[in-house]
Specification:
The complex is a heterodimer of chains A (236) and B (524).
Chain A lengths: L1 E8 L9 E7 L4 E5 L6 H9 L6 E6 L2 E2 L10 E4 L11 H6 L10 H13 L15 H15 L3 E5 L7 H17 L3 E5 L3 H7 L2 E6 L2 E7 H7 L3 H9 L1
Parallel strand pairs in A: 3-8, 3-9, 6-7, 7-8
Antiparallel strand pairs in A: 1-2, 1-4, 4-5, 9-10
Helix pairs in contact in A: 3-4, 4-5
Chain B lengths: L1 H29 L18 H34 L6 H7 L2 H4 L2 H12 L14 H25 L3 H9 L4 H29 L3 H6 L8 H10 L4 H25 L18 H31 L2 H5 L2 H37 L3 H10 L8 H12 L9 H38 L4 H29 L4 H5 L7 H10 L3 H27 L5
The chains are: A alpha/beta (236), B mainly alpha (524).
């Protein structure tokens, strides 16, 4: 289980108000995070990944604090909306970097890369460069790298925002399988309520740097009485 | 439509004048049979050991200068990129912009005063020859290469740095997977540009060359015309120079992409270990000292020199007048020609004729293919049988200097003018905002800053030129760079240093003044 306990963050210039997050995600769960732009969804993911340093609070995985670990050793994989792949490297190398950035792979690791590409339906394309792929295929490659990294926490920062509805649904299905089969947990930031419905049993609504609602996804989207939620959903 | 027609006519006129300036001297050069001392079928010049030696030295010094400038520049640019909060960063990047404005002969004086036999760090017995040429070329081109390469780090997406961090890449792996691919994209263009600048460098080789052993094509052309009175040899050398420049220009075009010079860089890059930080700081400081020291040393020497004696000399004031007249006149023609070419090129881009627009921009950069000294030699050969070329010094020097400034005008004014045109052209048409009113209410307020920069660059370049003026200048028509060269030739080193200081101050004042007067206040 991932626990975010009174995790505080503020920018050094003091222009934006301090954010404070409290949240827990069960193993095997994909929790969606929705909320207006600038509310702090991506900031929360960056704090968990270690790209930003919190002022106070804890990040616990199965009761063990991970917030003090450096980015590299955190049990986290992240997929962004774009720039997940290095454009000058082929798909195989992009995935292999997830195992060892020096690319000295043993036979087992080489097989793991091929298997991951195979599992995501990319084995025929492994020598292609990212520029030769569609947007959906590129995100599949990023997921293949998540697979070989074998990290417990998966962060998806609007990872499917640039894709059409059918493709988004397909990739969310892949993420669900990935999380279930590998006993991971995931946080999905999205602006699409439909994504939250497809991916998550529970969804958190973040506003002004705080989780102001955490409910079953259907309840939050259909019946929430909170004015912030109604305003947000009304504006979509 | 009438607006488009008037733009086409203006650009057509500029193109016709450009063609005349370039093609007429070419005709003079290619008409070998008309040149005294040359007989048809005569292979003497082509087989001459002197020409072979000149050719070899031109390439050799250009190659070494390019490698010595660009390879360290990669490390320095990387250090700047990875230290966005380094306290001296802004100041040092501004210092690195100075060699773009400092006249070559001034830089030479600085290099001599640091590394010459009586300098702070004397290098061997004599600085004259390959050593001196290399040092001066690196002084000019290392900062240029740093400024051209630095923006490449900004093209690396922030997410790639984050991924690199998450994947546990070390410094070498980050260089290999993130930084090198970005640098590699700009590197061939930068290498070729620096190579071309060193290959066609005139003032540095003329002042630091040190005899026939260290002569390049450009200097050999000048010597053939002014000292050996051998126009046939000058023509052969000019044709060789023309062929090489054409080849390099074609290669550059093939590579297409040359980054814009950029000094601002905001980034969230997070380096690295304390050891790597210290190394980067050291690299930046060493490069800063290398670029700053010659200028500082020259300033100190000049203030300790015969300042009042030089200032009291009437020749100096005559040269200052000539320098300002030639510099400002050339800038007026450069900016005017650039403006009309760019206006039509922007119109063509807007109607989807991007190929033609690009050709028009390239026409303005013809001086990269046909170097000023080659044009000058052509004019010399063409005109000398009919008129006294030395009496025509002002129109000839102003014309060729205007041509030299044109690529700088196109590069500094082009992007803003094109953007302006794309954004507001249709609005202007719908409001019938044309001609003077369009200039007054739209173009002047929005384009005065790049216009100011373009004018300042073109003026500084013409004021510092020691190529064409050396070919056509006389004691009465000498500019400050030529005066410095004459003083150096007469071993009046202290006087030359003072004159170099005055030229530097004049160039910087005019540059700053034009930027300020035309461009307005920074926050305008």
């Amino acid at each position: 289980m991932l626990e975010i306990d009174r995790l505080e963050f503020g920018y050094a210039n003091g222009k934006a108000p301090t954010m404070q997050f409290n949240l827990s995600v069960e193993a095997g769960e994909i929790m969606s995070l929705i909320g207006p732009s600038g509310s702090g969804k991506s900031t929360l993911l960056n704090l968990i990944a270690g790209f930003l340093a919190p002022r106070a609070g804890q990040i616990l995985l199965d009761g063990i604090p991970i917030g003090t670990e450096c980015v590299t050793s955190r049990p986290v994989s992240i997929v962004f909306q774009q720039h997940n792949l290095f454009p000058h490297l082929d798909l195989y190398t992009n995935v292999a970097l997830g195992i060892d950035p020096s690319l000295h792979l043993n036979r087992e690791q080489t097989a793991a890369v091929s298997e991951a590409l195979d599992q995501l339906g990319l084995s025929d394309l492994q020598r292609r460069k990212p520029g030769e792929l569609s947007g959906g295929q590129r995100q599949r490659v990023a997921l293949a790298r998540v697979l070989v990294r074998k990290r417990k926490i998966l962060l998806l920062d609007e990872a499917f925002a640039a894709l059409g509805p059918a493709l988004r649904a397909e990739l969310i299905g892949l993420v669900r399988n990935l999380v279930r089969d590998n006993n991971m947990l995931a946080l999905l930031v999205s602006h699409q309520p439909r994504d939250a419905l497809l991916a998550s049993a529970r969804t958190a609504f973040i506003c002004a740097g705080k989780v102001i609602a955490l409910e079953k996804t259907g309840d939050l989207l259909d019946h929430s009485q909170l004015p912030e939620v109604r305003d947000y959903l009304g504006s979509i | 439509m009438s607006g488009l027609n008037s733009r086409a006519i203006a650009a057509g006129l500029v193109l016709a004048v450009l063609a005349l300036i370039v093609l007429a001297p070419m005709a003079g050069l290619l008409n070998l049979s008309g040149i005294p001392g040359y007989e048809p079928g005569d292979l003497r010049f082509w087989q001459s050991a002197y020409i072979r030696r000149v050719l070899f030295f031109s390439f050799w010094q250009a190659l070494l200068s390019t490698l010595c400038s660009v390879l360290p520049a990669i490390l320095v640019a990387r250090a700047f990129a990875l230290l966005p909060d380094f306290p001296l960063r802004g100041l040092l990047l501004r210092l690195f912009a100075l060699p773009l404005v400092v006249p070559a002969v001034v830089a030479v004086m600085g290099v001599v005063s640091v590394y010459g036999s009586g300098g702070w760090i004397p290098l061997g017995r004599s600085l004259y020859g390959l050593n001196g040429i290399l040092l001066a070329h690196v002084f000019f081109n290392l900062p240029l290469a740093v400024r051209l390469l630095l923006p490449q780090w900004q093209t690396i997406p922030q997410h790639h740095w984050q991924l690199g961090e998450q994947l546990g890449m070390n410094a070498w792996q980050r260089w290999r997977f993130l930084e090198w691919p970005a640098v590699r994209e700009a590197l061939p263009g930068v290498l070729l540009l620096v190579f071309m600048l060193c290959l066609t460098s005139f003032a540095v080789v003329l002042t630091l060359g040190g005899g026939p052993k260290s002569t390049t094509l450009e200097v050999a052309i000048y010597q053939s015309l002014r000292f050996d009175f051998d126009p046939a040899q000058a023509v052969v050398l000019a044709l060789l120079q023309l062929s090489i420049c054409t080849l390099v220009a074609i290669l550059t075009l093939k590579l297409q992409r040359l980054p814009e010079v950029e000094i601002t860089l905001t980034s969230d890059l997070k380096p690295v270990t304390i050891r790597q930080n210290s190394l980067n700081i050291m690299l930046i400081l060493v490069a800063g000292v290398f670029v700053g020291m010659p200028l500082l040393s020259m300033l100190i020497d000049a203030f300790a020199g015969p300042l009042w004696q030089v200032i009291g000399n009437t020749t100096l004031w005559q040269s200052i007048g000539n320098t300002l007249f030639i510099g400002l006149s050339a800038a007026v023609f450069s900016v005017g020609a650039g403006w009309f070419l760019l206006q039509y090129s922007a119109s063509l881009s807007l109607t989807g004729k991007t190929g033609k627009a690009r050709l028009l921009d390239l026409a303005g950069s013809i001086v990269y293919v046909v170097p000023p000294l080659v044009i000058g030699s052509g004019m010399f050969v063409l005109l000398s049988p009919h008129v006294d070329v030395f009496a025509w010094v002002y129109p000839i020097v102003i014309t060729i200097n205007a041509l030299m400034g044109l690529p700088f005008v196109i590069r500094s004014l082009g992007p803003a003018l094109r953007q302006n045109h794309a954004r507001y052209h249709y609005l202007c048409q719908s409001l019938s905002l044309q001609g003077w009113n369009r200039f007054r209410y739209l173009e002047w307020p929005l384009l005065r800053r790049p216009l100011g920069l373009a004018a300042a660059l073109a003026t500084a370049l013409a004021m510092g030129d020691l190529g064409v003026i050396a070919l056509f200048g006389t004691p009465h028509t000498a500019t400050l760079p030529l005066l410095i060269y004459q003083q150096l030739g007469a071993y009046m080193i202290p006087q030359a240093t003072v004159t170099a200081l005055l030229l530097l101050l004049l160039s910087l004042t005019v540059f700053w003044g034009l930027e300020r007067v035309i461009g307005g206040k920074a926050d305008a």
